[in-house]
Amino acid sequence: MCKPQQQLDPRSLITVLYPQNPVYNNYQSGPLGYWTEQEASVLPTCRILPACSDDVALAISILAESHCLFAVRGGGHMSWAGAANIQDGITIDLSAMNQVEVSANSTITSIGGGARWEDVYLKLDRMGLAVAGGRVAEVGVGGLLIGGGNSFFAAQHGFACDNVHNYEVVLGSGKIINANIDENRDLFRALKGGTNNFGVVTRFDLKTFAQGKLWGGFVINPIETAAEQFQYIEDFATASGNGADPYASVINAYIFGAKGPIAIANQFTYTKPEAFPSILENFTSVQPQISNTLRITNLTDLTIELGAGTPNGFRQLFGTATFAADASLLAHLFSLARAAFLPIQNVTNFQASFVLQPISTAITSKAILTGGNSLGLGPEQGNLVWLDLTLQYSLSKDDAAVLNATQTLLAQSIAYAKSQNLYNEFIYLNYALQSQDPIASYGPENVARLREASRKYDPQGVFQTLCPGGFKLWRE
To answer: Is 126 exposed, middle or buried (0-12, 13-18, 19+ CB in 10 A)?
Structure first.
């Protein structure tokens, strides 16, 4: 068994937690722990809590030398067991590295690899600033950014990863380097979607801009309004792609419970302090409204509200696919979801979300302006919609049934979309099912670049063989 503490203790003051320490459990579940029960149930031999990049470098060096299996945890918000935790291995937990520092000229915000978006927005809101980051307060900064990242500001600034100015990275050798458009440029691009395949990102330097109050919140409508809302998703994607208004964004969620689909939860954001912008008028005019929280507020408040619907402590399953923004297609996919979820509606504490997120050409055209990314999405692919399936339940005995329903729905949806020539191969990594292969969906050219970067910066394959969590570049 690996025992890195025998080497760590004499050489550093890094905190190491063992299962017999009551604090160990605080990082498994609860406010400091993992989002899902699947991840919380994975028990590492010990948990290392570095305080700085030098601590991470020392830990990685020792683990690599000792051939210890390890995991790296930022925010811990991926759903499946082993994504950012490891049974009987060593988990490097970056939670203590949650610093948020703004440059003197307020153009760059430097964020520790263990920060969550709430840490970031609490500071920036007070300063009248923002970054193009996550939309859920409890989500980790690191996982979102190295997986791509959608944002309230995406139509203005592109994906969240397109707004990284610099990465500080600990390589498998223990060496600390920077990756940006001038230095290690190939790694800079690889980290924009290439996830944890190259090293541990200990600091993200994000482009920062002035931002005051904004308008947003939730509107809940009856499920009977679904047909018109599918059309409004297509219309919004078209308008956004045409550059109509880059300040608006929509998350359109169809909620299922024990009795089938029960409501539509729309999250609207307008990144100006202006209520009811015309680009969202179709949506906000839908009646009746079961509830409405639209208000002038700040990023911290909006992201806390958005996270409240997916609390810690449940079993969760993600799955995703990408389609053309076509109303008739979306209506058909929803009918498939009704049928697929029917056999599992009675599992304990079942709730599912069939979530549509428009990804217009206004978003996918931005990457080329900032050195490119690894995602393989571009404006030539037209206006798209990400389908995000999120299934919540309580008992492990239902794992197989919930997984089967999700896989069935994805397979049927993809097959139908292909038959209509409305399918896009892209799989958004941060919403992907464990069995999906988002890296491959980036296309052969990007996969080749990523593998070449891995060979160059991780020649011993530390992050391919000793760090098994996440989506690897070479899958069995």
So the answer is: exposed
Count of beta carbons in the 10 Å neighbourhood of residue 3 = 12
Q: Which segments within 286-416 are labelled E, that is strand? A: 291-292, 295-297, 315-324, 351-359, 384-393
Residue pLDDT, tens place only, 104-154: 999 999 999 999 999 999 999 999 999 999 999 999 999 999 999 999 999
Q: Can you tell me the distance from the alpha carbon of 266 to that of 229, in angstroms, rounded to the nearest whole number?
A: 10
Kindly state the percentage of the chain with pLDDT values over 90: 96
Task: Give the three-state DSSP class for 48.
Answer: strand
Distance from C-alpha of 435 to C-alpha of 285, rounded to nearest angstrom: 40
CA gap 179, 458 in Å, rounded: 14
Asked if residues 133 and 208 have their Cβ atoms less than 8 Å apart, the reply is: no
List the structure tokens of 173: 């050798």
CA–CA gap between residue 86 and residue 42 (Å, rounded):
6
pLDDT at 4 over 90: no
For residues 237-250, average pLDDT = 96
Residue 278's CB: how many other CB atoms inside 10 A? 11
The residues that bridge with 206 in the sheet, in sequence order, are 109, 164
Token pair for 330: 């979306």
Q: What is the arithmetic mean of pLDDT over 320-330?
A: 98
- Between strands 260-270 and 214-222, the pairing is antiparallel
Calpha distance 360→281 (Å, rounded): 18
List of residues 6+ apart from 31 with CB closer than 8 A:
312
- How many Å apart are CA 59 and CA 45, to the nearest integer? 15
Distances from the Cα of 243 to the Cα of 159, 200, 249, 380, angstroms: 16, 37, 13, 15
Percentage of the chain modeled with pLDDT above 70 = 97
Q: Give the burial class of 45: count Cβ atoms within 10 A of its Cβ; 0-12 exposed, 13-18 middle, 19 or more buried.
A: buried
**In whole angstroms, what is the distance from residue 299 CA to residue 222 CA?**
27
Report the DSSP pairing between strands 90-93 and 46-49: parallel
Calpha distance 237→194 (Å, rounded): 26
CA distance 150 to 353: 18
Residue 325 has pLDDT above 50, yes or no: yes
Q: What are phi and psi of 432, to 5 degrees?
A: -80, 145
Q: Say if CB 140 and CB 114 are below 8 A apart.
A: yes
Q: What is the pLDDT of residue 2?
A: 54
pLDDT 10s digits, 190-227: 999 999 999 999 999 999 999 999 999 999 999 999 99
Q: What is the CA radius of gyration of the chain?
A: 21
